[in-house]
TrEMBL record, chains A, B:
Keyword ATP-binding belongs to the record: no
Alphabetized InterPro entries for the sequence: DhaK_1, DhaK_dom, Dihydroxyacetone_Kinase
Species in which this protein is naturally found: Gryllotalpicola protaetiae
Protein name in the entry: Dihydroxyacetone kinase subunit DhaK
SUPFAM superfamilies noted in UniProt: DAK1/DegV-like (SSF82549)
One MF annotation (Gene Ontology) recorded for this entry: phosphoenolpyruvate-glycerone phosphotransferase activity
Matching PROSITE patterns: DHAK
One example of a Gene Ontology biological process annotation: glycerol catabolic process
Kinase in keyword set: yes
A family per Pfam: Dak1
Length: 332, 332
């Protein structure tokens, strides 16, 4: 294992310290491992909290800032944060107009965020709504999941509900909007290599030379099949076809996210997006906005995923609203 | 070699097509392989052109847009663009107030950009100034270079002179500013793995398990030494010490860029930046702005580089000015 780290045990603490040094506009609680905005949102607006295991950067800490999250709670690598960490974040940002917590559908996360919501309600009287993202069409259940896994739609969701909370929508509307996004987003990924969890010191799984895993999860959970690598135009089909088969994306505009898994350079992501865009065009899907880059990663895994989200004028307006975070920034 | 590509021969064309699909705000001339703004800058302002071999994305195509470049000329992977490609770009954007071309110090690039400037002057009467970036302190001469190699300072330069051109400074001032940036920027990099050029099909060089190359170039050119990997805190010293030894960075504020080489995930870049920031602080260097991420890459190489640039109020003002490109975006 060759990584830019000090010791496997200190990766989370050290990387949070680096995030804080790189982004003075964030306030990092190094003890609780929660990333906040240095300048909190105006009181009386709905708070937004997300979090999960570390290793998916810029998710979630990189999405804290005006127009997106108020707090991101970091667990150890690929491990849910604990209920008391999450409850601290909920208490810190949810005292005004309540808080929506955004949870990716993994068993540990769902359990700990639910417990945290109860804790925060009991300790600080915070009203908490929860939305669970389960958008990965690859498999119905998985190593860490009952039901589908939560992946790329999370990024789009955090942006869209972030805009709604910023403009002062109340908790019921923000939570309703979040569910609308969840119902309209679908994802599918593939891996060229495994990632290596620092504490394990070796790749989570082994792929042969020339072999890929289709339907991979962001923790290296098994997908649908292993098969030989093929030209990008064929690989694009392995992402586009299952997503389009799962939901009708031809009725109106969509936002497309072509996401890198961490170790795939932009030159390959651009190239893949070109292939994906051609297939979507041929299928009659109208891409209104697109995002190509590393947005929800899996440590040093090489590979990519596709997320499509059906949108209407309202969702597009919220998507286009200003956002100022390390991971997504425009309009301000 | 496992990559998201179709064929090694079509990587450049396919990735440019993907860039165009991902970014409708760019106009990509697929025949000449030049990336332009879809909406050109107002006439009468200095044009900015850069370019070089492909494989360093988002450099340079990802830095085309308001507040930064007007055109980026793409050569094949790690290969200079040809004089006629460059001359076409110079002619297209330089007819108003002349054009500054920004060239990284590699023998092929320097020769071809110089020839292009003569061609453009002869064919379109365009006045061309040239600035050459040679900021890598690792080695004095190298495989592709007489003198120092041009690396991370290029990104900071393109942003700063982009702002100056946007606000209407004339060619002499913009070129003078560019030389000021070049004189005040220094870089140093290290690699954990080689990159793999698609046409070669195998890594450019071999590192043993647990071995790194210190002073690596962005084409995999040899650096200063190979040594065993060490904790990030020690690796940070291998970047910071030679940069600080080469130029005094303690007299005023600096912009710091901690750059990923393409396959290193953000979690490791954050962590490294934390170590670098601590060393800079201890050395009395005052970091006024910082940038952490993949900005000038080397295909799928794992590793990172550090760039420091001495700045004053004027350079900081230009750095903070709005920029709207795929690779850098703020303030608009």
């Amino acid at each position: 294992m060759k990584k830019l780290i000090n010791r496997p045990e200190s990766v989370l603490a050290d990387s949070l310290r680096g995030l804080a040094a790189a982004h003075p506009e964030l306030r990092v609680d190094l003890e609780r491992r929660v990333v906040y905005r240095a300048e909190p949102k105006a009181a009386g607006k709905v708070g937004l909290v997300s979090g999960g295991g570390t290793g998916h950067e810029p998710l979630h800490g990189g999405y804290v800032g005006p127009g997106m999250l108020d707090a991101a709670v970091a667990g150890e690598v690929f491990t849910s944060p604990t209920p008391d960490q999450i409850a601290a974040a909920l208490g810190a940002v949810g005292t005004g107009a309540g808080v929506l917590q955004i949870v990716k559908n993994y068993t540990g996360d769902v359990m700990n965020f639910e417990m945290a919501a109860e804790l925060a309600a009991a300790e600080s009287g915070v009203e908490v709504e929860t939305v669970i993202v389960a958008d990965d069409v690859a498999v119905e259940d998985s190593t860490f999941t009952a039901g589908r896994r939560g992946v790329g739609t999370t990024v789009l969701l955090e942006k869209i509900v972030g805009a709604a909370a910023e403009e002062g929508q109340d908790l019921a509307s923000v939570a309703g909007l979040a569910r609308r996004v969840v119902n309209n987003g679908r994802s599918m990924g593939l891996a060229l290599t495994s990632s290596t969890v620092p504490a394990a010191g070796k790749p989570t799984f082994q792929l042969e030379e020339g072999e890929i895993e289709v339907g991979i999860g962001i923790h290296g959970e098994p997908g649908r099949e292993r098969r030989p690598i093929a030209p990008a135009s064929e690989l694009a089909r392995l992402l586009v076809d299952p997503v389009l088969a799962d939901l009708d994306f031809t009725a109106g505009p969509v936002i497309a996210l072509l996401n890198g898994m961490g170790a795939t350079p932009l030159i390959e992501l651009h190239l893949m997006y070109g292939e994906v865009a051609a297939l979507l065009d041929a299928a009659g899907v109208q891409v209104a906005r697109r995002l190509v880059g590393n947005y929800i990663t899996s440590l040093d895994m090489a590979g990519c995923s596709l997320t499509l989200l059906r949108v209407d004028d309202e969702l597009l307006r919220l998507w286009d609203a200003p956002v100022v975070t390390p991971g997504l920034r425009w309009g301000a």
